[in-house]
Amino acid sequence: MAPRAFPLVKWMAKGGLAGGALYVVYSQGLLSGSDQGARALGKVKAAVPPAVEEWTTYFGWQLPAVPKTEFSLCSAWNSGVRTVINALSVAPTKGCDLTQQGWKYIKDLVK
């Protein structure tokens, strides 16, 4: 009986973790507007460094200092969005060109 129950328990544990993660994401407002997401990011930025410092002193670990980077997630996200929108706007023309090239290739093969 135990070997048959193990996959069920494993599946239930995974489902519980996924459900809990979804609950936390929803309760923090990350599934709504960007202003609530920005507030949640601010909370995380304020809470994580003290927690990491507390755990490293508890376990006696010594972590290197976190380097300061000038990386804007908003600009990277907008860059990806612009790339996708650009590809979608060029797709009909590119599809027409590729179709014409394909027909030309087929006609050359038939000759």
TrEMBL record:
Bilayer topology annotation: Single-pass membrane protein
Keyword line: Membrane, Mitochondrion, Mitochondrion inner membrane, Transmembrane, Transmembrane helix
Annotated GO biological process: cristae formation
InterPro entries per record: Mic13
GO cellular component terms, A-Z: MICOS complex; mitochondrial crista junction
UniProt subcellular location: Mitochondrion inner membrane
Pfam families xrefs: QIL1
PANTHER family the UniProt entry points to: MICOS COMPLEX SUBUNIT MIC13 (PTHR31816:SF3)
Self-association state and partner proteins as the record states: Component of the mitochondrial contact site and cristae organizing system (MICOS) complex.
Function per UniProt: Component of the MICOS complex, a large protein complex of the mitochondrial inner membrane that plays crucial roles in the maintenance of crista junctions, inner membrane architecture, and formation of contact sites to the outer membrane.
Family according to the record: Belongs to the MICOS complex subunit Mic13 family.
Name of the protein in question: MICOS complex subunit MIC13
The organism of origin for this protein: Python bivittatus (Burmese python)
